């Protein structure tokens, strides 16, 4: 019988993990996507789409589907799911690993201002005299900035916000990473950007804007990651595979106790 693995996904790491597990014949990999995008790229293995109905719904799902291990590979800012996974796995007695890319760290020359919420970001823009802002916060988190007068925004998003908040002065740029350093330099220069507002997502796909900002002495207002439960953590797919290997060995012993003991 194949052991069932659940990957809570929606990230590059989740796709890579699903791909790495796809050639393990003793595993059945189920990917879970929130369903935020209408036509998502499908990961290797099976895919289910949509919320579970809170931690209770996830607990029930884990029991019904007889899931043996869960990877929380959701985005660093998708914290609700992390807390739900923690609670559900504890209730259902299923091992949980968080797979999370490391956060970006400041380097010499950076002009970062760290914030914990977008209201702080709005204040920082007003008080710091920003005039031309690259807003890369995700299409669902634009609203707090829409009321700001006297600031022009370049809003970069993967898909168009729907509805688009009513900004007094803004341009929408639809683009999907990865973004390379040269194109980020050109973008900042061509649009005369003096401030970037973004999340500390980490990873290589969207880090180039921070290097280009450092080179130009541009302010970066950086949203810190939300808090998460203390669970086993891997920062790479390789680390996640190592963690699973220990579980697989345990499962083999449970299936074949005599051979394992001998
Ligand atoms: N937040 C970001 O900046 C960001 C960026 C890139 C990608 N994403 C991806 O987009 C998805 C949603 O992000 P979010 O910030 O809205 O998450 P969130 O705030 O942590 O989750 C909100 C609710 O969405 C459902 N959900 C989230 N991830 C799910 C998954 N992988 N499978 C099934 N249901 C899921 C859960 O609903 P129920 O309670 O009903 O189970 C959860 O309570 C995540 O999968 C994340 O990896 C998020």
From TrEMBL:
<dbReference type="GO" id="GO:0009236">
    <property type="term" value="P:cobalamin biosynthetic process"/>
</dbReference>
<protein>
    <submittedName>
        <fullName>Cobalt-precorrin-6x reductase</fullName>
    </submittedName>
</protein>
<dbReference type="GO" id="GO:0016994">
    <property type="term" value="F:precorrin-6A reductase activity"/>
</dbReference>
<dbReference type="InterPro" id="IPR003723">
    <property type="entry name" value="Precorrin-6x_reduct"/>
</dbReference>
<comment type="pathway">
    <text>Cofactor biosynthesis; adenosylcobalamin biosynthesis.</text>
</comment>
<dbReference type="Pfam" id="PF02571">
    <property type="entry name" value="CbiJ"/>
</dbReference>
<keyword id="KW-0560">Oxidoreductase</keyword>
<keyword id="KW-0169">Cobalamin biosynthesis</keyword>
